[in-house]
């Protein structure tokens, strides 16, 4: 017998074959495990991407809604000065001229224009800020002067110098007011 075919070498050869067979199986298991890990990582990445896309979509929808709701803000601020001037003009007309037949139609036209401006403001969510008799709210009122008052609590709005307005839930222009303070 040759040395290659000795019976004592048969178990060693079987071990070599088992190791040779085990190595490809182990490498397949390792490769399969690596693929499973890669698949799980890819799934997580897809979930994160979907969540981020959904968040971006929500932000864009909110931005679009805000743009629609507040698009007229700059224009509304400009029109407020027109409304203020119209109100001042109406207040400046003395009572005797209001009763005059020649001026009656002019006053009626100015009043109708004022009502129309208020109607347009309301249709666009522009509302007047309440001020008189209320405590000063720095989020809506701008104190221009302090007036001594024994009747009103300090910090109470006594006079509205210029009307303030909101557009939906945002401040368009603060009300300029005079507030009470303790008398000297």
TrEMBL record:
Main location: cytoplasm
Short name of one Pfam family: GrpE
GO molecular function list: adenyl-nucleotide exchange factor activity; protein homodimerization activity; protein-folding chaperone binding; unfolded protein binding
PROSITE patterns on file: GRPE (PS01071)
Cellular compartments annotated: Cytoplasm
UniProt keyword annotation of Metal-binding present: no
BP terms from Gene Ontology: protein folding
Region (Disordered): 1-28
Keyword Chaperone among UniProt keywords: yes
Keywords carried by this UniProt record: Chaperone, Cytoplasm, Stress response
InterPro entries from the UniProt entry: GrpE, GrpE_CC, GrpE_head
Family of the protein in this entry: Belongs to the GrpE family.
Subunit field text: Homodimer.
PANTHER family per record: GRPE PROTEIN, GRPE PROTEIN HOMOLOG, MITOCHONDRIAL
Database matches in HAMAP family: GrpE (MF_01151)
Protein name in UniProt: Protein GrpE
Taxonomy of the source species: Bacteria, Pseudomonadati, Pseudomonadota, Alphaproteobacteria, Sphingomonadales
Name of the encoding gene: grpE
